[in-house]
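Throughout this chapter, every protein is written as a compact record of paired, labelled lines. An example of such a record is reproduced below:
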Amino acid sequence: MTTDIQLANILLRLPLDMQGMTLEQLHARTSEPAKERVVRKDGAPLDPGVPSEVIVPVWLGLGSDEISLADSGIMIADFGEAFEPRLKRQFTAHTPLLLSPPESRFAYPGGSDEPLSFPGDIWMLACTTWDVFGSGPLFEAFPVTLDEATIEHVEMLGRLPDRWWCKGEDRNNWFDEDGRKNVKESLCQWYGNSARSQNQRFTEYIQRPREMKRFDKFSIEGEKAFCDMMTPMLMLEPSERATTEEVVGCEVDTKMGSPRNPENAG
């Protein structure tokens, strides 16, 4: 079954001592729910079906830099877009564009591409893994459109497979035929002409923020292990992406940096 893998769908489990609490016991620990009235800015009555009040989410946990491994049990939520590839042929990923695999743009029924399947999950897992460690997304664009997402893919990963590359009618606005960044002069005021590699993005969004927050940075070996894991997960050709078994077998878990208490940082 393929799923919608993104940070918004990865939840921390409740502490074990809360899972069996009654409503009264929960309120005794967290206080009564805080409520706020729903009011229109123009003062007009609420439309039918709009609730008159909302409940402010309760804070149950700790800061992300304070949670121990023992308290980091997770669960995957929101299977509304999940499907079994052997039973359903689907060509469009109903996930945020910057997380969607490139085949979800170019594949279509009756075409030369296979329907979406587990390689798409591997792509989304790579983007989500980056989000866990990074202070910024692996791919970013504003506004987020199909073209902008594809520009990011090519800028970091290189030329698309031929069957997709030839469909990009406007590709010459941003790249030469080898996939190198070469923005038209008329667009240079909106688009930079430099391409950011995965290593550059790693430094910008993972290493440098850790250094600024006085967290341990990835060691040289840890950075290599992390990038060695990400690279096969982000192959543009779906059939060439890493499998789940290959990702699980990566050495990254033993070599990547871990946060330390800022008060004890040197």
Summary: The radius of gyration is 22 Å. Confidence is low (pLDDT under 50) at residues 257-266. DSSP finds nine helices and four strands in the chain. The first strand starts at residue 10 and ends at 12.
